[in-house]
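Can't paste images in this forum, so I'm doing it all in text. The chain is below; anyone willing to post the predicted structure tokens underneath?
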Amino acid sequence: MKTRDKIVLAALELFNTHGERNITTNHIAAHIDISPGNLYYHFRNKQEIVREIFSLYSNELLERFTPIQGQQESLVLLKHYLDSIFTLMWKYRFFYANLPEILQRDDHLHEDYIQVQEKLQGNLINIMRAFVELELLDVKEDEMKSLVTTLHLIASSWLGYQSAMSQKTQVTEQVIYQGMLQMIAVVKPKATEQGLEQLQLLEDGVKAIHA
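Text version of the structure:
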């Protein structure tokens, strides 16, 4: 693995474990046993590393939430998107947990974030339309943007909300699963009879994982 990639992966691990604000470039260099000078050869400062991680996150986010073409079983599709939510929130949990702070100190990153989220919202609306066509959801066209915004809001702010509600909240897999259950609860009122059965299966599966 190239040194640049090692730096990014080490930073992601340390940010997730200890919080991005508590980690310096010296911590990252020491973690992979390179000199600070070697790290600075690849990245001028920690913020450049954060931007690189965001680029990886953005690519994975848009890839995972691109509407899937072709015939797929409805439960398989629902599980794919739900698993993607969990994977992203866990893999990049430091970013979700401190989103406002990270964006406020970097205008360039903030601009990139907005552009990515606008693309994501368009993809999510198309995914929602696909679920309507599969007769899993009963959502009118003029309701889709509002529902997508609510789901997006839960996903992007769930970890921050949990931290605000408790002085000792740690980001665990269970906390993320609770966020997924919250999203299922929001969608349920818009589900058809068939869709409700599928959502219930997913909900039971999520609950069983951390029972």
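The CA atoms of residues 51 and 108 lie 9 Å apart. The two ends are 38 Å apart (CA to CA).
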